[in-house]
Design a protein that fits this description.
By secondary structure, the chain is α+β, with helices and mostly antiparallel strands. It is built from 5 helices and 16 strands. About 15% of the residues lie in helices and about 30% in strands. Strands 2, 3, 4, 5, 6, 7, 10 and 11 form an 8-stranded mixed beta sheet that branches. It has a 4-stranded antiparallel beta sheet with strand order 14-15-1-16. Helix 2 crosses helix 5. The chain is globular, with a radius of gyration of 18 Å. The termini are close together. The relative contact order is 0.24.
Length: about 210
């Protein structure tokens, strides 16, 4: 069994903001992606900054950030995945400032990070990183993967989301799958059963696993 992963947002109240961390925008942020291994982006700033409710995120291991598409994980979760098996990746450091000092660190038009230094550790968290995988795993069986009953190689789709394929058929690469991997035709990272079990056994929080049929 393979899994897609999203953030458990059940802690958010009805009509409340579901995002755990809000990006402090920087010049060119709209064009940044850390998803595709073929895109090598050297970020400026080299630490991606957010603001959020530090009390909400305390003890969680997978956050729902803005903008969507960046996989924001705790350093603890990365260590757990590393223990399952090797996978080539890059970690982009982040800092999340307490929401109550948002006005001190983020202002102007367009809104950008201010000069204000934050030295009090109680007002920031550096426990999270953005994960970018550095390898492609070309393993999709285009004939046996079906989209509304039509083989993927005939359906006209180029990219599949969580629930688009039934079944989703992947061919194991030599040596087996790494715990988390990138399939070019999928709009999400895949996690193995071993990775899911390791995360659950480690007591990681904030993870919502989506089995891929």
């Amino acid at each position: 069994m393979m899994y897609a992963l999203s953030t458990d947002v059940s802690h958010a109240k009805e009509n409340a903001d579901i995002y755990d961390a809000h990006l402090i925008e920087f010049d060119g942020f709209e064009d940044v992606t850390f998803f595709d291994p073929d895109i090598s982006y050297q970020p400026q700033p080299r630490v991606i900054e957010y603001y959020g409710n530090l009390e909400w995120i305390a003890g969680r291991d997978h956050l729902c950030p803005t903008p969507m598409g960046w996989l924001l994980l705790s350093r603890r979760m990365v260590r757990v995945l590393d223990e399952v098996g090797p996978f080539r990746h890059r970690l982009i450091p982040t800092v999340i400032y307490a929401e109550r000092i948002k006005h001190l660190v983020y202002s102007g038009y367009p809104r950008r990070r201010t000069w204000y230094p934050v030295t009090d550790p109680a007002l920031k968290s550096e426990d999270f990183v953005i994960l970018q995988l550095l390898d492609r795993t070309d393993c999709l069986d285009r004939e046996r993967t079906l989209v509304k009953g039509v083989p993927f190689d005939q359906c006209g789709e180029e990219l599949l989301g969580y629930d688009d394929a039934e079944p989703l058929v992947l061919r194991p690469p030599p040596g087996g799958f790494p715990p988390v991997f990138f399939v070019p035709e999928l709009a999400f990272y895949c996690f193995t059963e071993e990775a899911r079990q390791a995360c659950e056994q480690a007591g990681l929080k904030g993870l919502w696993w989506h089995p891929q049929p």
